[in-house]
């Protein structure tokens, strides 16, 4: 689904780019030209995104043991950079139009053509954002946001052209373009920032908190503690690695069963493809006071209170209970 949608987005970007060039040829409006220049970014980003999503869908191999999903972050970073550059280009063209006004032609025809491209961009962009979030595809979501930003700037251009047509004040063309150039550059920055966070494996605090809360609510009495927890998400793949403390006398078979219980819980809750890497630690006598396991044959101290798993104590690389 994401690959087919991204392919359609790339094809649509070419068609709309041609339409905007036609509108510029008819009107000689620098604002329409600016909209067309912004659409060149759509074309480039559309095909980069298509290549990246095909690459990201490939299974992991010997050279890429963690898969190819990070290609989505690279694509999104390129797209965000291109959006930001497009915003700068709009600023330049708008200022140039203010300083050296040029006569406009057939604004009514330009409004119809440009408006139609904006409506198509908004419809497809909204759908792409919805699908991208559902499929957890950063490429499709980013492409959809880019199309919607392009639609917003196109609508602003249509308003500007209409005002110019009514008032004959050509400077309104540049003012509207300058305002929306800021919106475009902010959107580009946010995409780059989000992509760099993924490339650098920056912690997703909300996702981490969701995982911790879920595990705390469903923890078993023999799960003495959980520490050194790391959670990362690439596309629809969720990676979780942690250290879990179990009773020291558990056999390998029993410990393996607990890991599979944990993995099944995560898959059921987050509906992702999940990779779980859990290092098993043996409990220590000082942890008996935190262990809620009933009838433990090796208890060295009475149980007092189970330590609640929170963000503040599960990411540290140290066992709980040691003074």
Describe this structure in words.
By secondary structure, this protein is mainly alpha-helical. The protein folds into two domains: 2-199, Up-down Bundle (Alpha-lytic protease prodomain-like); 205-314, Cation efflux protein, cytoplasmic domain (Alpha-Beta Plaits, 2-Layer Sandwich), CATH 3.30.70. It is built from nine helices and three strands. The protein has a three-stranded mixed beta sheet, with helices on one face. A hairpin with a 2-residue loop joins strand 1 and strand 2. The longest helix has 30 residues, at 138-167. It is elongated. The two termini are 53 Å apart. 38% of the residues are buried.
Regions with pLDDT < 50 over 5+ consecutive residues? none
Q: Helix proportion of residues, in percent? A: 55-70%
The main pleated sheet reads as: 3 strands, mixed
General shape: elongated
What's the number of domains? 2
CATH superfamily of the largest domain: Cation efflux protein transmembrane domain
Count of DSSP H/I helices: 9
**What CATH first level of the largest domain would be assigned?**
Mainly Alpha
Distance between termini?
Answer: 53 Å
Reading the helices and strands in chain order gives: HHHHHHHEEHEH
Question: Which fold does the CATH topology of the largest domain refer to?
Answer: Alpha-lytic protease prodomain-like
């Amino acid at each position: 689904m994401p690959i087919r949608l991204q392919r359609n987005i790339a094809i649509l970007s070419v068609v709309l780019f041609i339409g905007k060039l036609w509108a510029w040829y008819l009107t000689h409006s620098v604002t329409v030209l600016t909209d067309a220049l912004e659409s060149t970014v759509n074309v480039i980003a559309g095909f980069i995104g298509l290549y990246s999503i095909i690459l990201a869908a490939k299974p992991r191999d010997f050279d890429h043991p963690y898969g190819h999903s990070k290609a989505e972050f690279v694509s999104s970073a390129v797209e965000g950079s291109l959006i930001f550059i497009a915003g700068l280009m709009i600023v330049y063209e708008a200022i140039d139009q203010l300083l050296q006004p040029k006569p406009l032609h057939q604004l009514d025809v330009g409004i119809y053509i440009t408006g139609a491209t904006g409506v198509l961009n908004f419809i497809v962009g909204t759908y792409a954002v919805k699908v991208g979030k559902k499929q957890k595809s950063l490429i499709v979501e980013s492409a959809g946001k880019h199309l919607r930003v392009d639609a917003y700037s196109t609508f602003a251009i249509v308003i500007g052209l209409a005002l110019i047509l009514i008032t004959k004040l050509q400077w309104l063309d540049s003012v509207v373009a300058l305002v929306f150039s800021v919106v475009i550059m902010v959107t580009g920055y946010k995409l780059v920032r989000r992509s760099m966070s993924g490339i650098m494996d920056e912690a997703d605090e909300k996702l981490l908190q969701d995982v911790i809360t879920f595990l705390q609510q469903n923890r078993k009495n023999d799960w003495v503690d959980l520490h050194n927890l790391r959670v990362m998400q690439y596309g629809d793949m969720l990676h979780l690695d942690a250290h879990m403390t179990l009773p020291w006398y558990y056999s390998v078979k029993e410990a393996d069963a607990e890991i599979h219980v944990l993995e099944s819980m995560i898959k059921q809750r987050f509906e992702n493809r999940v990779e779980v890497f859990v290092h098993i630690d043996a409990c220590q006598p000082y942890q008996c006071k935190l262990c809620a396991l009933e009838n433990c044959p090796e208890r060295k101290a009475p149980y007092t209170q189970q330590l609640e798993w929170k963000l503040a104590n599960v990411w540290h690389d140290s066992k709980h209970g040691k003074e």
